[in-house]
Structures are given as C-alpha cells and as structure tokens.
Design goal:
Layout lengths: L5 H10 L18 E5 L14 E5 H7 L4 E3 L6 E3 L8 H4 E3 L6 E3 L2 H9 L5 H12 L8
Antiparallel strand pairs: 1-2, 3-4, 5-6
Length: 140
Amino acid sequence: MAKIQQHLRQFILQRAGFRCEYCFALAEFSPDSFQVDHIVPSSAGGDDSPENLALACGGCNGHKYNRIACKDPLTNKIAPLYHPRNDIWNEHFQWSADGLYILGLTHVGRATVNCLQINRTTNVNMRRLLLTSGLHPPKI
C-alpha cells in the first residue's frame, strides 16, 4: 500500500479526536507515537479507504500488528478484534469503577484487551494522571 496522504492522515486524527481508537490514549500525552492503522491489514486485503483506517498509539498498533482476530482469554476461542468503524465501543467494553482499566464485556472486547495489551502499565499510569486533571475517562 502507498503511504497515507497527509490530508487523509489529518482526517483520521480529527475523526478520532486525537485519541487511540483502541485504548483511548490522548496523543498529546502518550509516550507512544501514533500511526494510522489498517483495521483490516494490507496483508489481509485491507485498503487505504477511510473506513479501514483508525488512529492507533504505537503500543496498540504494535501489539495488533497484522491481526484481525485473537484468542478470547475466557473461552480460549478465536474472536475478531474490535473494529472501530463497525463496532460500538460500549457494547464490547466498559471502564473499571476507578476508570483506570478497560474491561472486555464480550468475546470481541476480551480478545482485543488481551491481544493489544490495552491495560499495559504505561496506559494505566497515564490514565491515573489524566483522571486527576479531569481529562479521563473520555466521553464515548
């Protein structure tokens, strides 16, 4: 696939509200760089259309790599990963009571949290700091 054009990259950033569409890390506070992710990877036939692109922090993008499915740790069955264009976040995830962790509610949510390591230490620490300043959790 060709490099994502700058105007399309800017559209993806703005559509995502400058947050990772998987872990909701804010780009301006994240220790990771952000990339435009192919939800369905190029290697699996995904294209560069806006419907197949999502904003992802380096951590989520690196753990997702070219996967479209992972094991649900509860059932040990393969489940599709969360698709930011087709899935509704609140159907698959919720915030923990303290707002620090993203909890998977469905096979899709659990597989995504596990595979992308969404609650990695850097994310939890960033959420803790942003919570004290009123910048977390995001309105979804």
